[in-house]
Amino acid sequence: MLERGLHQGTGLLQNRPWARTRVAAVATAPDAASLDTLWRLCALLQSEGTSVVVLDASVPEHEANPGLEQLLTSTSLCTLPSAPTRLDDGAPGSLAVLPAARGLQQLSTQAQPGTLCSLYQTCDTTGTPLARLLPMLRAYDLVLLHAPMSCLGPLLQPHGIRPLLLAQPGAEGTQEAYRQLKHLALYTGLSAQLCVVVAQPGDGAERAARTQLATLQRCAHDYLGIVPPGVVVCAWRPHDLQRLALQVQENASTMEGPPILSLPDVGTTPASVYVRNH
After folding, report:
1. Predicted local confidence at residue 88, as pLDDT
2. Fewest 10 Å CB contacts: which of 6, 216, 262, 267?
3. Residue 61 pLDDT greater than 70, yes or no
4. Element (H or E) spanning 247, and its range?
5. Sign of CA dihedral 115, 120, 121, 125
6. What pLDDT shows up at residue 220?
7. What are phi and psi of 245, to 5 degrees?
């Protein structure tokens, strides 16, 4: 009766004893095919029972479209709903997407002064900017950050999260993907999970994608001293997307929070104001 922390009323409060949320990241999709792959990837994860919320830095927050920036400054709303399928129209399989351009940039700026550390050190991540998201997003199994690599780097490094980098086909896509790999390696010491998407069937397109992936890996080895893992995803093959989903989860980091001993005060603001469905 006198124990601290977990107590006999924890189950009655309908709270899990520990909050465990995984965080993964995807660099901003460079083209329509890559963006479509991202949404299909999220839909696949949700169909397998993983509740997903996407913090989308390609969509800015503003008064008519509030998002992460408002959550970070709000005092009345401290958590999001427990099931994305209950948002807005409640359609099964709907995906929770939170505008996060300013919010993620704000967190990234806060991470730069003192939270970066060597990959060979054991870092205390309890005070990192990403840890601030846990009380707000603990109802979800997976938080997916979708942002430019320059924004993701400082956020991911303390947690050792390997982001997914979708490369656009062609020479320009190869150069841009290498530039992002180089930025990530130089400023954080991290590598990325490379992915080249083949939108249409054809031996030529698939062969070109594998050549592009090999070129990126060879350049990374020769000039950066790393060999990033890579995969070619053919959009018409379900097992390719399934393999990519497994790799995204393997590259994610689990963040645990303290016991939740009381129901949060969600105030009077409906969560649908902050989260939109995709």
Report:
1. 38
2. 262
3. yes
4. helix 238-250
5. positive
6. 97
7. -60, -40
User: How sure is the predictor about 111, in pLDDT bands with cuts at 50, 70 and 90?
Assistant: confident
Torsion 131-137-141-145 (CA) sign = negative
Report how far residue 183's alpha carbon sits from residue 177's, in angstroms, rounded to the nearest whole number.
Answer: 10
Q: How far is CA 258 from CA 40, 100, 138, in A?
A: 33, 25, 11
Q: Cα(66)–Cα(72) distance, rounded to whole angstroms?
A: 11
End-to-end CA distance of the chain: 46
pTM of the shown model: 0.80
Tens-digit pLDDT profile for residues 224-250: 999 999 999 999 999 999 999 999 999
What sign for the dihedral angle of Cα 236, 239, 243, 249? positive
Handedness of CA 94, 11, 132, 185 (dihedral sign): negative
